[in-house]
Amino acid sequence: MCEPRHFAVEYAINPWMDPTKPASAERAVEQWKKLRDTYRSLGHTVEEIAPVPGLPDMVFAANSGTVVDGRVLGSRFRAPQRAAEADHFRRWFVEHGYRDIVMPAQINEAEGDFAWTGQVLLAGTGFRTDPAAHAEAQEVLGVPVVSLRLTDPRYYHLDTALFVLAEATESRPAHIAYYPEAFSAGSRRVLARLFPDAVLADTADAESFGLNAVSDGRNVVLPVEATGLADRLAAHGYEPVFVDISELRKAGGGPKCCTLEIRK
């Protein structure tokens, strides 16, 4: 995670960003710290990378790397305003002992568009990550990739429209939640075939960034406004854990955007 010490909405690279509206770095830091502390209270280890002046979106660490079995595929941003973030995260991995690191040749916004299910890597495209990056991810990470096409610009990254509730194990398949209307017709059919028991989100869930959630297989950290989705998750045996990310949402981010999950 990366503290949003330099958080600001200075440009618009997604439909949620409006530079004419005020944004508070102080309030963003306060909300971010509560999110970080929530993970720690649930027993998770949180590593931090130092924020860099001039990179107001560096808080959205999920876009800076994909880690599966300790192998790291870095990122390459589409927006020039974020391009410098990639190398800061690459150096962090090097300094923390990771040796199997590949920086992509294709536009690849990491866990923003990649979701590991324990069996396959779900890979989004349509607005940010290039389709060719999906094949590159398969080659680098050595896992099968399933491509999904996003069609609604409000849900410009896969992690705004889908998240993994529980990774697959030897005894059970993966379980996911997603917002069908964010995807092309073909991608919806793929998701229905692969995950027939998925939790389906509605428009209110999606608009509150409810799909930009983080699950450890039991606890699901999600925005406080996503009450309908929380009720459905509870009915499936999950424990919703609410956080306030209203300030960070002004830049188009939520709990998952702030969280790069490291699978060693």
Automatic annotation (TrEMBL):
Source organism, top-level taxon: Bacteria
TM stretches of this protein: none
Gene Ontology BP terms: L-arginine deiminase pathway
GO molecular function: arginine deiminase activity; transferase activity
Keywords: Transferase
SUPFAM superfamilies per UniProt: Pentein
Keyword Transferase attached: yes
PANTHER family, sorted: ARGININE DEIMINASE
Protein name: Amidinotransferase
